[in-house]
């Protein structure tokens, strides 16, 4: 049996935790909002929603779901996620109490032949007496160290042999928690780890998975580029991803998610002008009526009355995404809570495509560099009427971010 949680503000209060530890009752939880800061060391997760995930539901313990060593030794043997070699996998399972909602992190897969090394940091905000490490893969790895703080905080050191996985499970995510923060980290002197350079080895990508079959959601794999996960609040609506840079011949795709999955109607809207904060309904078909009609600029909208909208360059007519499409979009959803508007998602111009050829490559870099060295006004990348080092570094950041 799995009970429906009562949702209060940003917290999740499970009815299962109230009635006690009856066999098979799990803590439950709402859909979870996944955010990631825009760059290593940044502090803007609320501005960068990358998706919404739904936990799997199980009457088993977290240890049983991880199934460490059950078939393949020293490894994850669970069934919820099809593991991929050289990938770190993030997902949640609503397990039987006392585990309740649990976060699973699994590095790599069995029989991948690579092995690896990674250090991760987990913080639960605020601390809760329910939170604990339910599974360590492998138990012989260094004991996770605790940094003295008002929140629940641990650092993990993982070294895994070829053909094995590594990872952990954090359980007890019910009660009054508001955020789980997860990051790949440099060594931390406060926990007596070595202080030499220690890059991620054996992983080249990071994904978050959802039980509803959407995604998976790709996360940036970079040290200190934190991921933050929080429960959705009552009657909340999210449009995600919250920011998309679209190449000129590409498309932006936004999804509307609400706390309750019983929505009866969707209506996507657009800002009347970029940054206006005023919205009107979006219609399927050409954007010619509102994109300004600049030569070669045009897009096609589809799915404006569904949970997923697509704004794509009108390549069939030789047109591309332009500055007029770089604005805010949201969805008005009718559901049991009533009519709610989602958060605003934004299409951003692909600034890294400096020469406007619909590709981000070395030609963009050298074309900008030539303009910059010539002190051309075309190199005023940040638009402050002056060509200086700030333009160079702003362009370099955009170029490295890509589209």
Helix content: under 10%
The tally of helices reads 4
Structural class: mainly beta
Biggest β-sheet: count, sense, barrel?
7 strands, antiparallel
Short description:
With 403 residues, the chain is mainly beta. Helix content is 9%, strand content 34%.
What does this structure look like?
- The chain has 403 residues and is mainly beta.
- It has three domains: 6-231, no CATH class; 237-349, Immunoglobulin-like (Sandwich); 362-401.
- The protein has helices spanning 15-19, 62-66, 362-373, 389-401, and strands at residues 6-8, 11-13, 32-36, 49-53, 56-57, 87-94, 101-107, 116-125, 132-137, 145-146, 152-160, 166-171, 179-184, 205-208, 217-219, 227-231, 237-240, 243-246, 251-258, 265-271, 279-281, 285-286, 299-302, 308-313, 328-335, 338-341, 345-349.
- Strands 4-3-16-13-8-11-10 form a seven-stranded antiparallel β-sheet, with no helix packed on it. Strands 5, 6, 7, 9, 12, 14 and 15 form a seven-stranded mixed β-sheet that branches.
- The protein is globular.
Descriptive tags:
mainly beta; 4 helices; single chain; 27 strands; 3 domains; seven-stranded antiparallel sheet; disordered N terminus; about 10% helix; Immunoglobulin-like; about 400 residues
Give the topology, please.
Elements: E1 6-8, E2 11-13, H1 15-19, E3 32-36, E4 49-53, E5 56-57, H2 62-66, E6 87-94, E7 101-107, E8 116-125, E9 132-137, E10 145-146, E11 152-160, E12 166-171, E13 179-184, E14 205-208, E15 217-219, E16 227-231, E17 237-240, E18 243-246, E19 251-258, E20 265-271, E21 279-281, E22 285-286, E23 299-302, E24 308-313, E25 328-335, E26 338-341, E27 345-349, H3 362-373, H4 389-401
Parallel strand pairs: 5-6, 6-14, 18-27
Antiparallel strand pairs: 1-2, 3-4, 3-16, 6-7, 7-12, 8-11, 8-13, 9-12, 10-11, 13-16, 14-15, 17-19, 19-24, 20-21, 20-25, 22-23, 23-24, 25-26, 25-27
């Amino acid at each position: 049996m799995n009970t429906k949680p009562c949702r209060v503000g940003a917290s999740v209060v499970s009815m299962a935790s109230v009635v006690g530890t009856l066999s098979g009752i799990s803590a439950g939880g709402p859909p979870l909002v996944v955010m990631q800061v825009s760059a290593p060391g940044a502090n803007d997760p609320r501005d960068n929603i990358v998706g919404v995930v739904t936990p799997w539901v199980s009457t088993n313990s977290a240890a049983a779901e991880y199934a460490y060593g059950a078939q393949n030794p020293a490894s994850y043997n669970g069934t919820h996620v099809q593991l991929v070699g050289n990938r770190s996998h993030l997902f949640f399972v609503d397990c039987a109490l006392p585990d309740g909602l649990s976060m699973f992190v699994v590095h790599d897969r069995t029989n991948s032949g690579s092995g690896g090394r990674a250090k991760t940091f987990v913080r639960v905000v605020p601390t809760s007496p329910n939170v604990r490490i339910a599974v360590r893969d492998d138990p012989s790895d260094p004991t996770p160290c605790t940094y003295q703080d008002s929140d629940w905080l641990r650092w993990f050191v993982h070294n895994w042999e070829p053909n094995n996985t590594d990872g952990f499970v954090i359980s007890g995510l019910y009660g009054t928690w508001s955020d789980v923060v997860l990051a790949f980290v440099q060594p931390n002197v406060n926990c007596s780890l070595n202080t030499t350079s220690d890059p991620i080895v054996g992983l080249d990508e990071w994904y978050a998975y959802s039980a509803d079959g959407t995604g998976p959601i790709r996360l940036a794999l970079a040290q200190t580029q934190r991921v933050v996960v929080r429960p959705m609040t009552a009657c909340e609506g999210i449009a995600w991803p919250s920011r998309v840079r679209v190449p000129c011949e590409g498309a932006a795709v936004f999804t509307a998610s609400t706390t309750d999955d019983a929505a009866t109607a969707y209506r996507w809207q657009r800002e009347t002008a970029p940054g206006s904060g005023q919205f009107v309904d979006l219609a399927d078909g050409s954007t010619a009526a509102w994109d300004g009609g600049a030569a070669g600029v045009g897009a096609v909208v589809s799915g404006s009355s569904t949970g997923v909208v697509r704004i794509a360059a009108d390549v069939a007519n030789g047109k591309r995404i332009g500055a007029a499409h770089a604005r805010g979009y949201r969805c008005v959803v009718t559901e049991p809570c009533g009519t709610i508007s989602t958060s605003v998602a934004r299409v951003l111009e692909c600034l890294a495509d400096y020469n406007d050829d619909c590709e981000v490559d070395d030609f963009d870099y050298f074309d900008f560099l030539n303009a910059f060295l010539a002190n051309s006004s075309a190199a005023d990348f940040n638009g402050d009427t002056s060509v200086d080092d700030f333009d160079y570094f702003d362009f370099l950041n955009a170029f490295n971010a890509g589209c």
